[in-house]
Amino acid sequence: MLDPVPAARPATGLAVRCTRALLSPWSRFSLLVAVLLGAAATMLLLEPQRLLATGWPARLSGGAVAVILFGVAYGVCTVAFVPRPLLNLAAGALFGTQAGLAAALAGTVLGAGISFGLGRVLGQDALRTLLRGRWLKAADGQLSRHGFRSMLALRLFPGVPFAAANYCAAVSRMGYPPFLVATGLGSIPNTAAYVVAGSETSSPTSPAFLAAMGFIVLTGIGAAVVAWRKRHRLAAE
To answer: Which of 158, 181, 178, 168 minimizes the C-alpha distance to 227?
Structure first.
């Protein structure tokens, strides 16, 4: 008679345990932190702010190709926490108002999309376990239920950090398309103001430059007032 076939044993080897550990939520979150820290350190070494002083490399100044390359570089820089106002000024100074605005908006949406994807894939499972506070739950619920209009409002107010909004949306249950559309639409006013200011830096007394700077100052004051009122309202509650 044939010997009975032994039952298959569950895979409990070292390789399986290591795989589970590497794919755990907190391991993926650690990878996200490492990627962001590495990107930020790289940007500090490369000093992208030198674009304002030295200009775009001559070998890459080929019209539409240069605009596209700048948009891609813009998106990568925002993921590495390079301030968007600096990049917007550079876009205007290098390419003028129209092409600069197109490159800046494309880079904004690209950078936001990359950050959202990284946060959703590597950080959401780990960070959602920390949503225990009343304010955190309220923010998560707002973005999950009213994602488009909430993100649109966040983009319209320049006081909200770009990266913070990206990763808050990624941790929530907000969809990818509403996030990208709201980012693109909500970023137009403030981005345009900085691009115009950058394109008119050689004429600081021109009406366009003065209007752009006035818009930047007024929106900054408005954002500070709204933040101050919300802070005191939350303190009162």
So the answer is: 158
pLDDT 10s digits, 158-183: 777 898 889 888 888 888 999 999 99
DSSP string, 89-109: HHHHHHHHHHHHHHHHHHHHH
What does the pLDDT look like over 96-146, one tens digit per residue? 999 999 999 999 999 999 999 988 888 776 666 655 555 556 666 677 788
Tally helices (H) and strands (E) across the chain: 12, 0
Give CA angle at 116 (182, 111), nearest 5°. Answer: 75
DSSP summary character for residue 206: S
Which residues neighbour 65 within 8 Å (Cβ) at sequence distance 6 or greater? none
Rounded to whole angstroms, the Cα distance separating 179 from 170 reads 9
Count of residues in the chain = 237
Report d(CA 29, CA 49) in Å as an integer.
29
Cα–Cα distance between 131 and 191 in angstroms, integer? Answer: 32
Q: Is residue 82 within 8 Å of residue 114, measured between CB atoms?
A: no
**CA distance linking residue 68 with residue 89, whole number of Å:** 17
Quick one: tokens of 195? 């691009």
Output the pTM of the full model. Answer: 0.78
From residue 204, give the alpha-carbon distance in Å to each of 49, 97, 98, 195.
20, 15, 19, 14
